[in-house]
Write a structure and sequence with these properties.
alpha/beta; 8-stranded mixed sheet
Length: 301
């Protein structure tokens, strides 16, 4: 893979922003500006507004001559539970749809600090219930998400299990946030190596989402405090340069110990949710190809 490509991505992510803690409005605007630079395969997908479980959503469907898959991706965008939207995640959702031939719903769940924990999980679980109540077979649904949304893929499955609902066919998590206690060693060992996060930044947005909730709650820190038994097969993709690396490695280890079929896919020298740099970074395209294969393999044909 190209060292020059990795340097280019690292440079983009290290662009200086405002000094000191940013307001919610600044954080959201800055993230939109960053994600507007990502390449979306517009020629291979079409999008339309939708509603799912009482929340706005973005419907993403494949177009063109690519082989159509049978099933639905229920996608949860990233953004520390504070920022982001289905539109900012479209480089990821669009590439998964284009590569699998599957349709997707990307859920516009409520954000903190206006709507702290557990609002996001309530919304993603409602979206899943809506698919089930609409007649969609759970064996034809996969959960997927990036960062906070990768964490939601896991915690929504836990909430569905605990509510007695049938579980989806598989979970796909890109760099999931799964430990609100921030006790992983990588939080400190990757400081400065990670071009996206600092501990202070994570604690700033994390406090907005927790709003006083105990970070040891299983739906806040499933990597260290949840019973993961019974979850569907899971693919976790993460970059080796991430502060949140141990959110993935510890989740994978505990899920495996609980009897869950897990693939932990760690890519060297890449940052948080590097897959969004598809078309720029070879590692991103390769990882998305592996993710697409995983989703196709676990959906009922």
């Amino acid at each position: 893979m190209s060292r020059e490509q990795r340097i280019q991505v690292d440079t983009i992510l290290r662009q200086p922003g405002p000094e000191g803690p940013q307001s919610v409005e600044q954080i959201r605007a800055g993230f939109r500006q960053l994600m507007d630079q990502m390449i979306v395969p517009h020629d291979r997908i079409r999008t339309a507004p939708a509603t799912l479980g009482g929340r706005p959503a973005l419907r993403v469907e494949p177009v063109g001559d690519s082989e159509r898959g049978t099933g639905t991706i229920l996608y949860f965008h990233g953004g520390a539970w504070v920022f982001g939207s289905p539109e900012t995640a479209l480089s990821l959702t669009g590439n998964l749809v284009a590569r699998t031939g599957l349709g997707a719903y990307s859920v516009d769940y409520r954000l903190a600090p206006e709507h702290p924990f557990p609002a996001a999980i309530e919304d993603t679980l409602s979206a899943y219930r809506a698919l089930l109540e609409g007649g969609t077979d759970p064996s034809s649904i996969v959960f997927a998400g990036d960062s906070a949304g990768g964490g939601l893929a896991v915690t929504t499955a836990l909430a569905a299990r605990d509510a007695g609902l049938p579980l989806p066919a598989a979970l796909l998590a890109f760099s999931p946030g799964t430990d609100a206690t921030r006790t992983g060693e990588s939080i400190d060992t990757k400081e400065g190596i990670d071009p996206v996060f600092t501990r202070a930044g994570l604690e700033h947005t994390g406090a907005m989402y927790l709003a006083g909730a105990d970070p040891r709650h299983p739906l806040l820190s499933p990597a260290v405090h949840a019973d993961l038994a019974g979850l569907p097969p899971m693919l976790i993709q993460v970059g080796a340069n991430e502060l949140l690396l141990d959110d993935s490695t510890r989740l994978a280890a505990r899920a495996t110990a609980a009897g869950v079929a897990v693939i932990l896919d760690v890519t060297a020298d890449v940052p948080h949710v590097f897959q969004c740099f598809a078309g720029v970074l070879d590692e991103a395209d390769d990882a998305l190809d592996r993710a697409a294969l995983f989703l196709r393999q676990h959906l009922r044909r």
